[in-house]
């Protein structure tokens, strides 16, 4: 049995499809799980409830923690430590291996232009400090409880059906509504993005590779050095629209943030957008002979997927 906690999210659905290459027994866990494969086992669970989490992970060989909480620091600070504690205890009880889908928020600001698995964990933002706390909880469980853990770390997401994807929301969705696209802070800086289908495939590979445990892995991400302007232009070309965009400067984010909680939440993370953001996944690519999806192809798939729903 392989279990996905956070099924149905940007990665969970694709991960369920990929796991069919490794097992016929897949359990999808969320507040409202929906089948991806015909024989998926569904389990309704509140991850804040420790007993429910233990039942959700029972008899699981591998557990994938791919949950996405609302982008609200108050929610993160309150709920993430509880969820991680419950998941660790459940995996220890069921003797499951744990695969954690992580982001780059815990890295030091100075690491963003050249992120590798060895980059310094030294966050200065509240969101980053939450992520660092989770990593310490995992490391402690690995040291003291012999829990087998691996961390699959991703850059910002993009891809078909990526509801929370940076490129999806700020560019594609606005162009689709005949509006100008948005870009945060500096559209002249390089920014790498992880394609959701690549991330899902990589998590399935890692979870089912014994030697991958006890390590941090950057999930496969194209190393093409594209800027915000480049991404706007590619989407515009694929969607046959003019490449119009508005830059969300720090001042504009502050003003809009007075009226929008979602925008307010973006402000502390702008250090990731006002400098080059380069995410090195060469460790995974070399280990598994993997070629990440290039941006033109990934964007084409987003547009194609969206058009098929009209």
TrEMBL record:
<feature type="domain" description="NAD-dependent epimerase/dehydratase">
    <location>
        <begin position="4"/>
        <end position="209"/>
    </location>
</feature>
<protein>
    <submittedName>
        <fullName>Nucleoside-diphosphate-sugar epimerase</fullName>
    </submittedName>
</protein>
<dbReference type="Pfam" id="PF01370">
    <property type="entry name" value="Epimerase"/>
</dbReference>
<dbReference type="InterPro" id="IPR001509">
    <property type="entry name" value="Epimerase_deHydtase"/>
</dbReference>
<dbReference type="InterPro" id="IPR050177">
    <property type="entry name" value="Lipid_A_modif_metabolic_enz"/>
</dbReference>
<dbReference type="InterPro" id="IPR036291">
    <property type="entry name" value="NAD(P)-bd_dom_sf"/>
</dbReference>
